Amino acid sequence: MRYTVYTIQACFGLLVLLVLAISAFGLAGGRINRTASHPVGFYMRIDAEPRVGLYAEFCAPVARRELPPLDETYVPPCTVDQEGAPLLKRIIKISAEEGAYTVQGDDPRSLDSRVFGPLSKGDILHVLVPIWTFPNSNHKQAGFL
After folding, report:
1. Per-residue model confidence as pLDDT tens digits over 74-118
2. What is the structure's pLDDT at 25?
């Protein structure tokens, strides 16, 4: 009986530490991606100009009614992913003369520039880099059309 009580206390203590660590990560500018748009894992906001290969965190620059039918819930005023976070997509092209940033997810069904066109720099809320991601066997790299 005593062993069971200690085991429960240890598990509870580990759970509390995990919650505190995740909270501290979020407060430090971290983001956990659990969507199919990119590898699942941990991403960190950085103080850098957007460039190809980095990730942009943004709200879709179009109204919900202008989007095609979606199989997930996206809500105004910021069109966000199903978890309520701004969208996270890889920057794949920058047109300096137009000030346009093309973003794309790995999943062909991603809500990205293939749907709403390129972003302006003002649409980008943060720039992020992956810090620890996990391979996803369901990912298929989609080419930009």
Report:
1. 444 455 555 556 888 999 999 988 889 999 988 887 888 988 889
2. 80
Q: Which residues, other chains included, contact 16 with Cβ-Cβ below 8 Å and sequence gap of 6+?
A: none
Q: Please, what's the largest Cα pairwise distance for the chain?
A: 71
Kindly list the distances between the CA atom of residue 67 and the CA atoms of 38, 76, 88, 112, in Å, as whole numbers in the listed order: 21, 12, 17, 11
Residue recorded with tokens 């810090």: 131
Q: What single-letter amino acid sits at 61?
A: P
Choose the CATH number for 31-134 among 2.10.109, 3.20.20, 2.60.40, 2.40.170: 2.10.109
Element (H, E) at 6: helix 2-27
